[in-house]
Amino acid sequence: MTTTDSATIVMDLDRAWDLHPQVSVRPEPFGALLYHFGTRKLSFLKDRRLLAVVQALAYAPTARAACLAAGLGDNELPRYGRALAVLVQSSMVVGRTP
Amino acid sequence: MSQLHATSPVPATEIQDEENPDEQSLIEADDLIEEVSIDGMCGVY
Amino acid sequence: MTAPTAPPLVDLFERGLDAPICLTWELTYACNLACAHCLSSSGRRDPRELSTAEAKAVIDELEAMQVFYVNIGGGEPTVRADFWELLDYATAHHVGVKFSTNGVRITPDAAARLASNDYVDVQISLDGATADVNDAVRGAGSYATALRALENLAAAGMRNFKISVVCTRHNIPQLDDFKALADRFGAQLRLTRLRPSGRGADVWDELHPTAAQQRELYDWLLAHGENVLTGDSFFHLSAYGEALPGLNLCGAGRVVCLIDPVGDVYACPFAIHDEFLAGNVREADGFSGVWRDSELFRRLRTPQHGGACASCAFYDTCKGGCMAAKFFTGLPLDGPDPECVQGYGEQLLARRGDGTRVPKPSGDHSRRSRTTVDLVLTRREAVEQRVRPPVSDCAEHPLAGLDLTPTGKDTAHA
Where are the alpha helices (DSSP H) in C93-194? Predict the structure, then answer.
């Protein structure tokens, strides 16, 4: 993840990521609930493909690869990348050293 | 697990799209994700 | 080109989920206090309380359903002899716990034990920033008990413990003082709504905030409430304008519910009445069967239409307010909340006759004499050496099953 200035955070799609070990994932018809047992934060994923991306992160070499594996098109990467950045911001998703 | 250098929290709507800055105002990440505290549910002590 | 957008959360939840996100679990109706506004009319232990084994079976179900968090209360949950055992069992089984207590058993040892468990949160109940305001509602000595607990938690290095306040006519002038008190102990402040539930119905008229005070509270939360929790209990105030943080919807039967000390499952802890009773965990399919298949919850999960509120411009934000508040003030459920910020609830209440009978809670575990029970704490090793007599099924005393001995002085206890 790179920072440009103090107000903008851009998701680095070309590195490896993973779910934080204290996060519990509960799939739902509309997407999923994510609960972080450490921060007590709850995230609602309102999209099943975003759930697929999140679940693929641990096994894919990069976030970009996880997105493509989940069936996203190139033009959808910015939107899903921003959603992933929100999860990184709240420590639900963390960097992984492969 | 490598360290993240996150800066101060920023609302999702302010996250900018480097690749397509013109489309930024039309595409919101909020529609994919919503965050609430576990205390944010009515009907609980 | 605009990207497709997902529906707002409120729409997704109106039809309910396969499991609650979190829920309230009242472990016992026993309590050493006799607060005037107790939502569960607690005081006397109910002899039909779930056993330790039954409680663990509930926890097993919550784990299987991936319920993330359980809010344990009562009565006073720490008076159950197996409280610590159940706490540890829950956190060892992927169920986060927050428990609500008046602080009576939060000794330095208890505080140290809590501080060492990352999956437990503690909430100390306090309804006045000063002893006079607090004790008028919660009983003589309760302020001192709460502050002692806060001191012990702070000294033990406990993090993120909360002071939870029920907002009343008498403590709304103390909002700044509550914040200062929380800051003094490094605690997080939580402000919640008084409902006319349990004994709350008896004191509702004199205790509930005035319309002006509601506005004051709302303004204060917007200005100072960044780190203040509310349990989403003021979603009816979103009709003033900007919504407060939270889901802003009634979660009863949709994302939350109550399990009471005898295993009854209600839509929410403010609605302990047969009208909102969904079933019992002792039934064949346990808690999950009740959550998924009960007739009441199915009904709550069908989209609600505004009824008398449908033509109001603010219905979409306030959703008609709190079901329990309407029910226990005798107002129709498809109409305005008694504290509707537009005043429609007040109008309805004023128009009907004084003789209107309002529903009473289904159970009343209040102690007859409504006095505070003196708890004398004993040393752990003294207790463990004794053989505990079996608890009679008929035992109603709030301390039944709890072995306490005066440590030396001749101290009387109830």
Answer: 108-115, 131-138, 142-155, 175-185
User: pLDDT by residue (tens digit) across C362-375?
Assistant: 889 999 875 667 66
Average model confidence (pLDDT) across chain C: 89
Q: For residues C97 and C70, is the Cβ–Cβ distance under 8 A?
A: yes
Which residue in the block uniquely carries the two structure tokens 């709460």? C146
Q: Which residue has the tokens 């012990």?
A: C152
Question: Each residue of C67-86: pLDDT tens digit?
Answer: 999 999 999 999 999 999 99
The residue in chain A having the minimum alpha-carbon distance to the alpha carbon of residue C11 is A30
Question: To the nearest whole angstrom, how far is the Cα of C68 from the nearest Cα of chain A?
Answer: 7
Sign, CA dihedral C164-C168-C171-C176, equals positive
Residues 1-40 of chain B with CB under 8 A from chain A are 1-10, 12, 14-20, 23, 27, 29, 31-40
| β strands within C227-350, DSSP E | 258-259, 264-266, 277-280
Tokens representing C192 are 């919640």
With an 8 Å Cβ cutoff, is B42 touching chain C?
Answer: yes
Q: How far apart are CA C30 and CA C46, in angstroms?
A: 7
**Angle, helices C108-115/C142-155, rounded to nearest 10 degrees:** 50
Q: Which residue has the tokens 């079976």?
A: C57
Tokens for C291, please give them.
């959550």
| Structure tokens, C197 | 């539930």
Q: Is the model's pLDDT at A5 over the cut of 90?
A: no
Position C188 pLDDT exceeds 70: yes
* pLDDT confidence bin for C336, thresholds 50/70/90: very high
- Closest partner residue to C9 (CB to CB) among A24, A44, A47 is A44
3-state secondary structure C375-402: CCCCCHHHHHCCCCCCCCCCCCCCCCCC
Q: What is the pLDDT of residues C142-165, one digit of tens each?
A: 999 999 999 999 999 999 999 999
